[in-house]
């Protein structure tokens, strides 16, 4: 569940429904190419129910062709190391969570936790960003979803078994620090958004898992990415834009070589003008959607 806190960050503003499979599922994927290099960009879902069928012949072909695989971070890190980092960056033993929150947010948080059968005591020593992550994951976990069943973990296990090179754009510590380095006011805003929208889901919300399975990047971008950019610009810069720019720079260097690579990162990193397909196209590469 700890890893899911980070993987589910951008998706925390919606409630995720567990689906048992959708006909003709085809999560979005792009091909970036030049004369002698090809990189497939696959927008993943980090937390899934075990019965969701998301793999397609197109994805399997991309995986088979790839000489190297890229992920946001390694999902097979040691649990003890993960716990130590979460304790370091996500726990505050000096000030309780409720001391940092305005009364409205405390009330929303309490109501959201109560609706999930959890208590405020469970999160009262977490920093606001970590409490937001925990709260955002509860619906998925209670519906049977897990990081282990997510696309990233599934592909990582397959690659390790096949002894394919597995690389990561970021360490787990770097991912945690994305949140730990946010101003406390932004952390509190983030928690307030998650709690309020679990108590009263927005009318124009989107079922992220269903949109992902359909490859509906436009809907994901319009509702989630654009909403974050407009309403929470500091979160958008930290969680999406700066990371996408850094990853595109890495991929630019990879394109200078030759061969085929597969990039599997969260689907929201593919949406909008700051998404990876748009950034790679702006660098002069041929970019076409293949799924």
From TrEMBL:
Signal sequence range: 1-25
Pfam families: TraB_PrgY_gumN (PF01963)
Keyword presence, ATP-binding: no
Entry keywords, A to Z: Signal
Stored InterPro entries: TraB/PrgY/GumN_fam (IPR002816), YbaP-like (IPR047111)
Protein name: TraB/GumN family protein
Organism in which the protein naturally occurs: Caulobacter zeae
């Amino acid at each position: 569940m700890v890893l899911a806190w980070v993987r589910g960050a951008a998706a925390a503003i919606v409630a995720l429904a567990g689906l048992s499979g959708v006909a003709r599922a085809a999560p979005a994927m792009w091909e970036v190419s030049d004369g002698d290099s090809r990189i497939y960009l696959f927008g993943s879902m980090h937390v899934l129910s075990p019965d969701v069928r998301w793999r397609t012949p197109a994805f399997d072909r991309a995986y088979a062709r790839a000489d190297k695989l890229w992920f946001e971070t390694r999902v097979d890190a040691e649990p003890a190391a993960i716990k130590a980092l979460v304790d370091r960056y996500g726990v505050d033993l000096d000030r309780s969570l409720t001391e940092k929150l305005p009364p409205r947010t405390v009330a929303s948080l309490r109501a959201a936790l109560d609706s999930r059968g959890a208590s405020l005591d469970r999160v009262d020593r977490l920093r606001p960003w970590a409490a937001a992550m925990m709260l955002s994951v509860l619906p998925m976990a209670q519906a049977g979803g897990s990081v282990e069943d997510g696309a990233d973990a599934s592909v990582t296990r397959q690659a390790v078994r096949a002894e394919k090179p597995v690389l990561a754009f970021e360490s787990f510590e770097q991912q945690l620090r994305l949140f730990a380095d946010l101003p406390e006011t932004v952390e509190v805003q983030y928690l307030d958004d998650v709690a309020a929208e679990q108590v009263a889901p927005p009318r124009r919300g989107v079922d992220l898992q269903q949109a992902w399975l359909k490859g509906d990047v436009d809907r994901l971008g319009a509702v989630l990415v654009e909403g974050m950019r407009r309403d929470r610009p500091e979160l958008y810069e930290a969680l999406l834009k700066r990371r996408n720019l850094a990853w595109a720079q890495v991929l630019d260097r990879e394109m200078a070589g030759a061969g085929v690579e597969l990039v599997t990162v969260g689907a929201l990193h593919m949406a909008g003008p700051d998404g990876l397909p748009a950034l790679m196209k702006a660098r002069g590469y041929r970019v076409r959607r293949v799924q």
